[in-house]
Amino acid sequence: MKQKSSSTSVAMKHLATAALMLSLGVAGIDAQPLNMTLSGTAAPSTINLGTGTPTSEYRLEGNGAPGSFTLRVVSAGAASPQPSSTCLGIYIPVLAGEGVFRFQDGSLLKVNLTAGSDCINLAVGEAHCIRIFQVLGGTGRFKNASGNDVTLTMTLAPVVPGKPVFFTVVGAITGTISGVGVGQDSQGGQP
User: Fold this and answer.
1) How many helices (H) and strands (E) does the chain have?
2) What does the pLDDT look like over 63-102, one tens digit per residue?
3) Residue 80 backbone dihedrals phi, psi, to 5 degrees
4) How far is it, in rounded angstroms, from Cα 55 to Cα 111?
5) What is the C-alpha separation between 18 and 85, in angstroms, rounded?
């Protein structure tokens, strides 16, 4: 009887060790850092985000981990500027927004805005814009993706100086997402 209990105990230890190794291995593979650069354009949009304020639309392309992508973001700011200790220009909090990344393999990654701001410096003719997103999953290798604090940081400048209607955009995306699949083929992004 003692032998059976001892072999059961050894088997349980092996099983626990294997489970721990598997979970640590999956966590290491599962977490995907985002470190991407991008550029594109921004303009007013007719999309209504329900804030009662105008919406802006960003059409961006970039590259970095986890690959080449396009990004379409819409967002709406507050109706009037707010005081800020960090912005030396006009500060406008962002109230709502969402976006979709489309990666080269066809996979989509959906994001929802949780915070953001625009700091407009009229003297320089640029705006520093921040959008912070929560990951809502997607398709293909991003079907089970999740994450918070995916940050889009952009610098905007009017295409025609003095006419703030159509803008150039350069920026970066940082953060970490989990639940990203690996080893997708070229059809991996198809639902």
Assistant:
1) 1, 8
2) 998 899 999 999 999 999 999 999 999 999 999 999 999 9
3) -140, 155
4) 17
5) 52
